[in-house]
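Mods, move this if it's the wrong board.
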Amino acid sequence: MGAFLAVLFACVRLFAADLTPVPKLTDPVMDTAQMLQPEEREELNGHLLQYSREKGSQIAVLTVPAISPETPFDYSARVMEEWKLGRKDVSDGVLLLLVRDERKTHLAVGRGLEGAIPDVYAKRILQDVLSPYLREGKTGEGVAAAVAQIEKLIAGEKLPEASTQSDAADDRMGNLLVLLVVLFFIGAFLKMCFGPTIGSLLTGSSSFGAALMLGLGVQAGLVAGLIMTVLALIGFSGLFKIAEIFISDGGGDGGGWHSGGGGGGWHGGGGGGFSGGGGSFGGGGASGGW
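Not the wrong board. Structure tokens:
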């Protein structure tokens, strides 16, 4: 029995080793098969990033050379499991997969959008919208048209606003910064009353408590407390000395900031900070080809 299990485990490992790996998610458009023109990829990246910020839902496009021996559904399920597209409590993520060498497609729909994009609609998007463009070699136009249809269907679903949580977090962080400035001056008074060490510790602990009261969590509270403890210890004179060091170091190389690259600006295809929001996948969607 033990030998049988060992052989079975070895076979499973061998099969898993042959599977196409899931790329790390860095942008909404992961064109690993180079099926899009650079300008198409950059434009679509910018659009989907803006869409995610404004609407909250996440749409990702992935192109890969091949996925055999897996089916488009199986590979898409692995991608959705790893990327976790969509917001955690909403699961409003969508994945559009194109398999270049096998001429296959799949549209994977997060749990929260299965009502807005039922399987039959997903099939129509692949067959009636995307495939005709792909057969003519117009991949960029086809993907853009498919994304537009996906967005129209999502618009018909009542989903939570995108900015509610982020705006609340920004407000709490802004309140904390104002409070920390006030605590810095209070810390100077505490040092006069209790001495440098105790006064600084009281300032740090007060900052920790302020972060907790504002709902920023223990980690943010610890960071705020540590920073304020150090600032209280060094005081105004220490801050001025640090500022002088930075100013003197920055003046010796001719001034200015050097990008080291080209003409600056944002580049959609270059490994940004896009990531999934914790959404889940329940198997919704459809497969197609061209």
